[in-house]
Write a structure and sequence with these properties.
The complex is a heterodimer of chains A (139) and B (670).
Chain A: H1 2-29, E1 31-34, H2 36-41, E2 50-56, E3 62-64, E4 67-74, E5 77-83, E6 98-105, E7 111-118
Chain B: H1 2-28, H2 32-61, H3 68-73, H4 80-85, H5 91-112, H6 121-142, E1 150-151, E2 154-155, H7 171-186, H8 188-199, H9 206-236, H10 247-272, H11 276-299, H12 313-334, H13 351-383, E3 387-388, H14 391-411, H15 422-445, H16 451-482, H17 486-496, H18 498-519, E4 524-530, E5 535-538, E6 541-552, E7 556-567, E8 570-575, E9 578-582, E10 588-591, E11 593-595, E12 600-609, E13 616-624, H19 627-644, H20 662-669
Antiparallel strand pairs in B: 1-2, 4-13, 5-6, 6-7, 7-8, 7-9, 9-10, 11-12, 12-13
Helix pairs in contact in B: 1-2, 1-6, 2-5, 5-6, 5-7, 6-8, 7-9, 8-9, 8-11, 9-10, 9-19, 10-11, 10-13, 11-12, 13-14, 14-16, 15-16, 16-17, 16-18, 17-18, 18-19
The chains are: A alpha+beta (139), B alpha+beta (670).
């Protein structure tokens, strides 16, 4: 029986350490998914890590040194974003692509992003010019 | 042609349903003809799906743009290899690949076991074919690769296709999905055997012995798939990393972790008769995580950069998973008494205990990855807010786990079963432990302060030393007996017990990979806008932009920078990173240029031109030790292959076996 207690103690110790690490990790990196509309309504938005999704407003991308500015668009709403992260922007990031910006909303209403993800248009099975026939071949 | 393909899929669907019921009723009604016809139905399913795949491949190679799939995933200018790879470039085709692989695996299983496991096989077939029915249903009814583009009432071909995503036009990416699928699909086989052994209440571990090779091969494919994906991300994506804890990456990692745990814990069952329930749980989890992984990449449940288009396909997976998991859980719980442990844990310092902790830690890692991946879904369900966790979360949990695993890798194989004496511990571990401490002290003295990296380097030396010592001890004994050279003796030693020494080599590969991972603690990066002729400095390198060039071919147009690399004033290399824009998809991609060396890689990415069109934007990274990840991978492949070679001497394990019960024994002898 004594052996089993030793095992139990060790397991509790290991699992406890991992849970503690995990909780710390969650608190440090948790990011809220928001649409632009929700972000505008969020009362205590400043200071929280947020991930905003939207389409890159065509023609809005400008580079200044290593800083990239652009606007995200969702329906009629716009959000100005400044990206100054260390990772290169993904190849799929361009006018009109769907993008996710991670960062914090600044007091001036400009979103300070430190990470950008863009969904590849073609992998997203770009809408074909002609819709595939709804019927299957052979029927 | 496409009609024939669609028909083949339809027929395969019917035949796989027939195979399920044929083999079950053949067993229950004791009708051998029915059972044989069910087996033949499996071969027929395999042949039909081969035909369907062949037709799709032919359509891709012939650029038959009447088919929606061909139009969306290929174009005329694409090289033949990538036209072929477009088979798995999209949703429909990759599901067809899944179904075809499963059919091929099933046919192989049935052929190789045709004379054996008479009572178990009908259930194995039923389980394999139930999974097959599910996937063929998806290919046939939800995501049909033979859909034609139609305008009005006529079938019409388009002049040229959309093209395969240019990011996928790279050789490792052509090989990565099939490798991963060979792994994903392969776990269906050990799972089917495990369940069949539960259903038929088999005594003993026949299913483990029978599926050991399958499991290792499948595990190897999966490792290769994951590593090829990492290698592709490193060489193609241009963000300068190989792993981002993206949901899709995690989806491939999770079943790999449980499979690794399974490979280790079956040894406990084979040698000690312990952990039987646990093994059932592990192989089932692995199988369902494979299905879950396929689901995650397709359903759009969690947002990912890699995801296929989301659609209605997710709910089918949810139904399949729910039924499958419920059925499996019921089977295991109902047959618990057949899975009783035959031995007990005796001591914390024992082989058993090291296996136990290896499993605990691997499972904790898998759970953390699952938790992190599904966090947005879970948090939305609980609090109504969608919250995601980032890479730091995964690293924080998994780096300590990795380091603990590294320690176990060194310690586990060398401590005795049941309990270890202090004396034997000292004999085995004193020298490597001292060596590790000396190395760590030296690194600290040299100015290294990164705690995890120090631990990793120290433990890596510890493990490598213990493995080398094992080979040396065994080889020396053989040399003394036979007079061969030490190297030949080591080969002989490995051949005598391929499983054990192959396993050591796999461990060695893993250690080398860890050394590569630890290098990431010392990465450097910079981004510069440079005029032609200008230069910048990173690490020990000076990078000078010598020339900017541009041009185009059928497939893409390109901009290329010629970079002259020098170190300490001496010119050492030229790198040519390229920026391409593919014509069919109008998508830009970066062709990075990497100077790979054993101690560090210099990674350069030409990101494009600055606003005024005068300066080149060059991003450069220095990645210390990253090559060791790929080297470690090849060592791992070699070790796994050695494990598959039959050992020269068949080993007998000291283990009490229940041959029969007293009463039965008498009836036999009456």
């Amino acid at each position: 029986m004594k052996t089993y207690w030793k095992f139990a103690a060790l397991i509790v110790l290991i699992v406890g350490t991992l849970v503690w690490l995990a909780l710390g990790g969650i608190n440090e990196t948790k990011t809220y998914y928001k649409t632009i509309a929700e972000l505008n309504r969020m009362p205590d938005a400043a200071g929280k890590r947020v991930r905003v999704a939207g389409d890159v407003d065509p023609g809005s991308i400008t580079r200044e040194g290593s800083v990239v500015k652009f606007r995200l668009k969702q329906d009629a709403l716009m959000l100005s974003v400044i990206y100054s992260g260390s990772d290169p922007l993904p190849d799929t990031f361009r006018d009109g692509s769907q993008a996710l910006a991670d960062g914090k909303l600044g007091p001036d209403g400009v979103f300070q992003a430190d990470k950008i993800q863009a969904k590849c248009a073609s992998k997203y099975e770009a809408k074909p010019g002609m819709q595939p026939a709804q019927r299957r071949a052979g029927l | 042609m496409e009609n024939l393909g669609a028909l083949a899929i339809l027929l395969a669907f019917c035949l796989s349903i027939y195979a399920v019921f044929g083999s079950l009723f053949g067993k229950w009604k004791r009708n051998p003809f029915l059972a044989v016809s069910a087996r033949r139905a499996v071969y027929a399913v395999c042949a039909l799906l081969t035909l369907a795949s062949g037709i799709l491949i032919y359509a891709l190679l012939a650029s038959d743009f009447r088919l929606a799939y061909v139009w969306q995933h290929s174009n005329r200018a694409m090289p033949v290899l990538y036209k072929f790879a477009a088979w798995w470039g999209g949703q429909e085709g990759s599901l067809l690949l899944w179904a075809w692989l499963l059919a091929a695996y099933s046919a192989i299983v049935i052929y190789t076991t045709r004379e054996r496991f008479r009572d178990m096989m009908p259930y194995v077939i039923a389980i394999l074919m139930t999974t097959e029915v599910f996937f063929i249903m998806l290919v046939g009814y939800v995501a049909n690769p033979f859909q034609v583009l139609a305008v009005g009432r006529s079938i019409q071909a388009l002049p040229d296709g959309n093209g395969l995503n240019p990011l996928l036009q790279y050789w490792t990416m052509a090989a990565h999905p099939p490798m991963l699928y060979l792994g994903y699909v392969g776990f269906t086989v050990p799972f089917a055997f495990a369940m069949a052994s539960l259903i038929t209440r088999q005594p003993g571990d026949a299913w483990i012995a029978e599926t050991r090779r399958w499991t290792i091969i499948t595990w190897l494919f999966q490792s290769a798939g994951i590593l090829l994906g990492a290698g592709w991300a490193y060489a193609v994506l241009g963000w300068g990393g190989y792993w981002a804890w993206d949901p899709v990456e995690n989806a491939s990692l999770m079943p790999w972790i449980t499979a690794t745990a399974f490979l280790h814990s079956v040894m406990m069952q084979e040698k000690k008769g312990m952990m039987k329930v646990w093994n059932m749980v592990l192989i089932s989890s692995t199988f369902f995580l494979c299905i879950f992984g396929t689901f995650l990449t397709r359903s759009g449940v969690v947002s990912s950069v890699h995801a296929f288009a989301s659609g209605s396909i997710g709910k089918w997976f949810v139904v399949f998973l729910a039924i499958g998991i419920a059925g499996t859980a019921y089977l295991i719980l109902d047959r618990l008494e057949y899975l009783k442990s035959e031995a007990q844990l005796d001591s914390i310092i024992s082989r058993e205990s090291s296996f136990l902790f290896n499993n605990l830690i691997l499972l904790a890692s898998c759970f953390a990855v699952l938790w992190g991946t599904l966090f947005p879904v879970l948090s939305e369900a609980v609090t109504g807010e969608k919250i995601t966790v980032g890479a730091p979360f995964f690293n924080r949990v998994n780096i300590p786990i990795g380091i603990f695993l590294l320690l176990l890798t060194g310690v586990g194989p060398l401590i005795a079963w049941r309990r270890s004496s202090l004396d034997s511990l000292k004999r085995n571990f004193l020298h490597p432990a001292i060596a590790a401490l000396v190395l760590m002290a030296a690194l600290v003295a040299a100015g290294m302060r990164h705690f995890y990296a120090l631990m990793t380097f120290g433990l890596s030396l510890f493990v490598l030393w213990t493995i080398a010592a094992e080979f040396y001890k065994g080889a020396r004994a053989i040399r003394a007996k036979t007079g061969r050279s030490l190297l030949m003796a080591a080969v002989e030693l490995t051949h005598r017990n391929t499983r054990r020494y192959g396993g050591y080599i796999v461990h060695m590969g893993v250690v080398l990979m860890f050394i590569g991972f630890a290098g990431a603690a010392f990465n450097l990066d910079t981004v510069m806008e440079v005029n032609p002729g200008g230069s910048f400095h990173l690490g020990r390198y000076d990078v000078k932009v010598v020339n900017l060039d541009s041009g185009e071919n059928d497939n893409y147009s390109w901009n290329r920078a010629a970079l002259e690399i020098s170190s300490h004033g001496r010119k050492i290399d030229m790198l040519y990173p390229e920026h391409r824009v593919y014509k069919a998809s109008r998508q830009p991609t970066s062709e990075v240029a990497i100077r790979r060396r054993l101690d560090q890689d210099l990674f350069t990415n030409f990101e494009g031109m600055s606003e005024d069109g005068q300066r080149a934007i060059i991003r450069a990274f220095v990645f210390p030790l990253v090559s060791w990840i790929w080297i470690g991978f090849w060592v791992l492949v070699g070790g796994s292959l050695i494990c598959l070679i039959p050992a020269k001497t068949r080993l007998q394990y000291a283990r009490t076996k229940v041959v029969g019960v007293a009463g039965q024994y008498e009836t036999v002898h009456k």
